[in-house]
## 1
Amino acid sequence: MWVWGEFILASALIIISGSYLARVGDKIGEVMGWERTWVGLILLSFSTALPELFTSVSSAGILHQPDLSLGNNLGSITFNLFLIAILDFLSKEPLTRGLDPSLALSGSFLILFIFLYLFFLTLPLNRGILGVGGDTIFIFLFYFIALRMIFIHQHRNNEEVEKREREKGIWKFWLYYFILGGLILIGGLWLAKTGEKISRITGLSRTFVGTLFLAVVTSLPELSTTIASLKMGLPNMAVGNILGANLQNLVIPFFSDAFYRGGYLLSEISSSNIFTLILAGILTVILLLGMIYRSRRAFLRMGWDSLLIFLLYIWGMFILFSMGEAVSLIN
C-alpha cells in the first residue's frame, strides 16, 4: 500500500540526512575544540533528536494525538538504549568497560527525569501557564539545570582539553548543519502523518504505533551517528549521543504541550505509557551498572549488561504490542 511507501521514503530521508549531519556535527566539534563526550551529548544529540521533536510536536499540535506524541518520545528512549546492545555487538570488547565515568551523571539525570514523569502521570498537576502544563514547564527548566551540572562536572574532570586550530571555513559547516536539520524536519512531519495512517489501517493503539514504528524510525539518525562514532574509535561520543538524545526526548513534551490544544498534555496520556517509562528506567539502570562494574566477560559478543538490555527491550515491545492488540479488540 502507498502508506508504507510513504513510510519508507520519509524514513530514507531521515536516515540519509541524519548520517551526513552527524559527520558535519563531528567536524564542527573538532574545529571548535569541543570535547568528544560533550559533542555527542549536545551537538550530535540535538541534531539526531530533531525527528523526535518535529514528529511529536506535529502529532500533538496538528493531529491532536497526545499518546502518539509522547509514545514517540518514550519509545525513542528505549530504542536508543537498545542501540547500546548493537554498539556492544559491533565493539571488539565490552562497550561499557571503556566508557568515561562522567557519562554516569547524564544517565543519573535521565533516571531522575523518568521518575518525574512517573510522578506527574500518576498525580496530574492540571495547572499551567498559557495552555502549557506546569509539569512540562518544570521538567523543561530542570533540563537546563541538569545540563549546567553535567557541563561543570565534565570540564572539572577534563581540565586539559586539546586545542585545535579553527578553520576559516567553519561557517559552511554550520550552514550544512542547518540545511540537513531542515531535511530531517520535513521527514519528521511526513512521518507523523504516516504513523497516524498506519494506526488507522492496522487498528493498533496509537501508543504502540508511536512507541515502536515512529520511535524506531526517528531514532535511526542516532543509529547511524553512534555506529559512525564507534567506527571512528569514539565510544564516549557514541554513548554521549544516546544519553543526550534521551534527555532531550524527555524535554520535547514541553513543546508538544505548547502546541496541543486539547488540554494539558500529560493529563491526556493513557496509562500504557507508564509501562514504557518503567522499561526505560530499568534499561538505564542496567547501563549505569555496566559502566560502574566494567565487566570483561562477554556472551554472543556482548557484555552481560548489553545482553540484558537487548532481551528486556524485545520483551518490552512484545508486552506493549499485546497491550495494543487488547485495546484494539476492546474498541
## 2
Amino acid sequence: MRAIDTTVTDVVDSWLEGCKDRVRPLSLEAYELDAKLRIRPTLGAIRLHELTVEDVRAAVRSWGGPGAHTLVRLSSALRYAQAQGLVARNVAALVDAPAAADKREVPTIGPDELRAIFDAAAGTRLYPIVVLAGACGLRRGEILGLRAGDVDLDEAVLTVRGQYGRVPGQGARIRETKTASSVRAVAMPALAVEAVREYLAWRETQPAPIDGRIFAWHPNTLDRHFRDAMLAAGLGDIRLHDLRHGFATVLAAQGVHQRVAMAAMGHAAEAMTHHYTGVLDASLRDAADRVELALRRTS
C-alpha cells in the first residue's frame, strides 16, 4: 500500500486479514460486522493521512450504542497502520469513548416483530438462541447455562438449573440455582423444539465444549452478535433481553392467565411455581401451544 493513496477501508481490510490467525472465529465475525456496519460507511473513503480526530468523533457519535467497541477496533487498525509506517499518529486513540446512555427506550415487540427477528437469525448459530428467548421467554444466562441433560426434545420441555455469567473473581461460569426448589421446567413450543434439534444435530459435527454447555458463547460476544445481526437486517437497536418482553406480550395477547404467564417467565415470587417431575403442568403446556400458534408462520 502507498501511504498517500491508502484509505481507512484499505487499512481496516488489511488489519482484518491479519486478525484471521490471531483471534477466535466469533471475535473475527464481530470485527468484520463492525467494519461493515460502522467503520466503512462513515470513514472508509477518507485517505488515511487526511483522517482527523474530529472525523472520528463525528463517526463515534453516529455509531450510537456499539460505538465504544467500534472505536477500540478502529484504534487497533490504526495502530497497525502506524506499525506499517502508513501514518504518523493514531487519531482514534485521541478520541474518548462515548459515555453510556442513562436510559434506553425498550422497543415494542409483539408477534410480528418476533417473527421478523426469527427470520433475521434463521440459518445462523443465533437462531435457536433467539427462538428460546422469544418463544420460551428464557433469560440470556439461562440459555447459555443449558446443558444436554437439561433438554428433553421428545417431551418438548427443558429444565432451567442455573445461569451462565460472570462471577467476580472467577470469570464466566454456570451459576447453579441456590436451591432445588429454584429449578423450573419450561414448556417448549414446536418451533423451539425444531430449532434446538437442528442445532444439536449440527453441533454433533463440532468439537464438544469443555464445560458441556449447549451454546458455548460468552455473554458479551452473544450480545454484540445479536445486536449487529438485527442492525444488519434493518430491525433497529434490539437487545436479546427485549425478546423476553416480546414473549410476555405474546402471552398476554393470547389470553394466558397472568399467574401462568408469571410462572412461564420464571418469576420466583409468583405463588404458582412449577417444577418438572415427569409431567409438565397442563397450563404451561397450553401456554406454549398458544405461543406456537401466534409465532408459527403459516406460509
## 3
Amino acid sequence: METAAADANAPPAIFTRTRVRVGLIISCQIITERAGCLTSVIEHIAEPVLMTPTPTTTTPTKGDPIMNIKKRALLGILAGFSASIAAHVAHADAVQDIKTKGTLVVGVKADYPPFGALSPSGENVGIEPDLARDLAQRLGVKVQFVPVVAANRMQFLEQGKIDVMIATMNDTPERAKLVDIVHPDYYASGYNLMVPKTVKVTSWNDIKGEPVCAIQGAFYNKEVAEKFGAETVAFTGVAEALTALRQGRCNAFVYDDTAIEGKLQDPAWSDYDMPLQSQDAQPWGIAVRLDQPELAAFISKAIIDWDKTGLILQLETKYHINHAAFAVQMHNKYK
C-alpha cells in the first residue's frame, strides 16, 4: 500500500521533532536578541519532545536507551543555546545600560604618570582619565574610576567590574581573543633614551660605542646594541639602572618612552631629557568586553573624533610631554 510504503520510509517522529525544534532554537538566536524567544523554544521542546512516550514493548523496560540519549542531547543543545542567548541579551545594548545607570566605570592606571596617576588630593589625573571623562561626557553620564594594573586590568573587564579599560594596554592578537580592543588604536609607545642634559645626543648614532643602561630581558636591548652600536649595561631593575645613570656609569638609559616621560615629570630628574625620536612604537587600545558591539562602535567614533580635533595632541601638551609620532600621524589622517 502507498500509505504503508510512505510510513516505512518516513523518519521516526523524534527525528522530525528534533529538526524542527533545533531549527527553532537557531532561528531564535539569529532573528532576535530578546529572551522571550527562549521561552517560546522551551514551550515547543519540553512537552512534545522531551515527554514523548517510548514505544510499548512486550517486555517491560526502564526506558528506551536511544530515546534517553536523544533527550539528553536535546537538553544539552537547549542549555548551550539558552546560555548563549542569555549572555547576548544581557549585553545587547551596553551603551543604553550605561546611560540607564548614569555612570561609566573606567579602569585606569594610578601609578603611571602622565597617563594615569593620583593627584595629592587623590583625584585621577592624566591623559587616560581625561579621555575617560570625555567618553562619559559624550554619553551624558558621570565617570567612576577603578585603579588597575597590568596583572588585573583584563580580568576586571571580563568580570564586569569596569565598563571600559583605558590603561596603557598594547593591542595584541592574543589579548584581542579575551577582550574587544577598539579600533582605531588611540596611542602608541616605543623605546627611547633618558639622557643627562650635559650629554649631547642629537641622533641615535651618537650612542655608538657608548655605555647605555638597560633592563635585563627588555626586547629592545639587542636592537640598540646591533642597530646603533651601543654598549648596553643591563640591570635587574629600574631603580638600579637609574642609580647607575646618576653615578655616571652610563651615558644614557634605554627604556619605555612613556615611562621616561613620567619620570621626567619628577623635579628630581629635571636635569635629564629625552631628546630623540622614539623607536619601534607599539599601538595601545581601549578595551570593552566581548559581544558589546554598540559600545565598541561608540568608542571607535570618539577616538576618530579625538584624532580629528587633535585632542590627544592637546593632552600631550597639557601634561608636558612631546608629541608622539603616532598621535601626529593619526591627527593628519583624520583632520
